[in-house]
Design goal:
Layout (H helix, E strand, L loop, with lengths): L2 H24 L1 H32 L16 H4 L5 H5 L6 H11 L30 H12 L26 H5 L10 H14 L1 H4 L23 H4 L4 H10 L14 H11 L9
Helix pairs in contact: 2-6, 5-6, 8-12
């Protein structure tokens, strides 16, 4: 075989390889789209298996909910992915997938005010292994995909969603007047801090964490990580007035509710406890 013939064979082989790769590349977008569709289908199928194993007992076979056990998931206000009326009603600024992921992974350590009159007896447990549950992240994601597969939902809202009528804008209270409402000497006594800790563990620990570092199970999927009260550099710029405003009025854009149920004394006790890691008690 002559050298020229070998060169010709090499050139033809190279051209053929390039042509094959070019043709394959043209079809790559379609191939990837099909692969993603197949993967999504397998994830939904897996989610259906997990839902049957773990969720039906409270939420029903078709996500219709079970009285006294758990709310419906396959409902129009939750799965309206464009208007998201339920998420707006609870002031959740993230996406529906984020909300579902957060709820499944971290559970519901506190009963939702939205379901206050529904008589559910048990808290929803945490399901993610990250928070002591049995499910891996991919299994949590499969459940999210399965519930989203019901969109736009079949069942009506549990509670009628009403658009609140805006009231008059309250007159801001001068900072010096807010500080005058502290009902005990500052720095606080250990007894005050202990009482603040009790309030914190009942109401705040789920999101802000046992060590006050903003890493509680309820923090999963929130639009912004809850405040780390042990970060003394950041806390040095977060004064008592700002802290009081955050507790009393909440930060709904970040998923934190307004704690209107606290008395003035409870507000200041929990504030002092939250500021105790950095000992930033003074105005």
């Amino acid at each position: 075989m002559s050298v020229q013939f070998k060169i010709l064979i090499g050139i033809l082989f190279t051209v053929a390889t390039i042509a094959i790769l070019f043709i394959y590349g043209i079809a790559e977008d379609q191939r990837m789209a099909l692969a993603q569709k197949n993967f999504a289908g397998r994830s939904i199928q897996a989610g259906a298996d997990y839902f049957e194993r773990y969720c039906i007992v409270c939420h029903g076979e078709h996500g219709e909910g079970i009285a006294g056990k758990g709310p419906p998931l396959n409902r129009t206000d939750l799965l309206d992915l464009k208007s998201t009326p339920y998420l707006k009603s609870i002031k959740w600024n993230g996406t529906t997938p984020d909300f579902l992921r957060n709820t499944i992974a971290a559970g519901r350590p506190q009963f939702s005010a939205y379901y206050a009159n529904e008589g559910y007896l048990d808290h929803m447990p945490t399901w993610s292994q990250d928070y002591g549950g049995p499910l891996r992240p991919d299994q949590v994601e499969a459940l999210v995909n399965y519930v989203l597969n019901w969109a736009p939902g079949e069942f009506p809202p549990v509670v009628e969603i009403k658009t609140p009528t805006p009231g008059p804008t309250p007159t801001p209270i001068p900072p010096e007047e807010i500080l005058k409402t502290i009902p005990f000497p500052v720095p606080p006594s250990q007894a005050i801090l202990d009482e603040g800790k009790t309030i914190y563990e009942t109401n705040c620990k789920a999101c802000h964490g046992a060590e006050l570092k903003g890493d509680g199970p309820g923090a999963v999927g929130t639009p912004k990580k809850p405040r780390d009260f042990a970060d003394c550099t950041a806390m040095a710029t977060f004064d008592l007035i700002q802290h009081h405003d955050a507790v009393v009025n909440g930060r709904p854009q970040f998923g934190m509710p307004a704690w209107k149920k606290f008395s003035n004394e409870e507000v200041w006790k929990v504030i002092m406890y939250e500021r105790s890691p950095c000992k930033l008690f003074e105005p």
